[in-house]
Amino acid sequence: MTYSELSEQIVQKQSYLCVGLDTDPRKIPKYLLTEPDPVFTFNKAIIDATAEFAVAYKPNIAFYEAQGPRGWESLQKTLDYIPDACFSIADAKRGDIGNTSDLYARTFFDAEAAGLSFDSITVAPYMGHDSVMPFLAYDGKWVILLALTSNVGSADFQRQSIGEQELFEKVIETAQTWAGPDRLMFVVGATQADELSRIREIAPDNFLLVPGVGAQGGSLEDVSRRGLTAAGGLLVNASRSILYASDGTDFADKARHEAKILQREMAQYLADYQKK
Ligand SMILES: O=c1ccn([C@@H]2O[C@H](COP(=O)(O)O)[C@@H](O)[C@H]2O)c(=O)[nH]1
């Protein structure tokens, strides 16, 4: 999916909601466990219930890898089920020496390798340019680089000063020499909304993937007021608050309700941005 197609989806749906598919068999409604593939059955219902309000879906790969071969099968079926109009994100947080990153990129981008062809993958920047480049070798695919993450441990390294900058700023600035905003996004936690104005100064056009609203307590309003751009520029993720809104037979209805609440709020922030 291109930058302008993503931006058009945001306008069309009046939403920049990314639904995180962090599907844990221990948390899904018990009655689904008798299904041949409970994780896929759950994801299918969640996607059907939320597609009207979401522009992106983000399976977190850990939840699938933890299930072994069955998990990979659920992941592949889930990716195939995500509507073409929606942006898909493999939240895999990969990155290694180039030789190895190349295989990670093949795994998530080349359908002929592992059966998966995500639009994008999250990548850790710690090993530098040659660990990221193999992901950028795939035309039309996106790298979403961890910049300022939502967890408290982000202070350990990402907030450390190096010269005039903090490390996350250096990551954002340097990575922009590797690819343009049409191929490169950054992860910025919703819990870090205070830093968003500063981040927008150094990355005015890049989309930001923003996890941390809902279960982690980040404010959608703060993120939106500081992070929105003319193209939208945000994908705000919510996983647990949508997926596990109910553990009963009404789980999909409740998920839809939660997604709709977030979309309604987003529509308001988009309208406010246009008026600025
Ligand atoms: O900084 C980060 C980077 C990634 N995540 C991931 O996003 C979702 C958040 O889930 P919630 O249930 O909405 O809290 C999850 O997959 C994380 O691994 C993040 O939270 N923060």
From TrEMBL:
GO MF entries: orotidine-5'-phosphate decarboxylase activity
UniProt pathway annotation: Pyrimidine metabolism; UMP biosynthesis via de novo pathway; UMP from orotate: step 2/2
Superkingdom in the source lineage: Bacteria
EC number: 4.1.1.23
Listed GO biological process terms: 'de novo' pyrimidine nucleobase biosynthetic process; pyrimidine ribonucleotide biosynthetic process
Keyword Nucleotide-binding: no
Domain Orotidine 5'-phosphate decarboxylase, residue spans: 16-255
Pfam families: OMPdecase
Top-level EC class: lyase
InterPro entries recorded: Aldolase_TIM, OMPdecase_type-2, OMPdeCOase_dom, RibuloseP-bd_barrel
Catalytic activity line of the entry: orotidine 5'-phosphate + H(+) = UMP + CO2
Keyword terms of this UniProt record: Decarboxylase, Lyase, Pyrimidine biosynthesis
Family: Belongs to the OMP decarboxylase family. Type 2 subfamily.
Protein name per the record: Orotidine-5'-phosphate decarboxylase
Name of encoding gene: pyrF
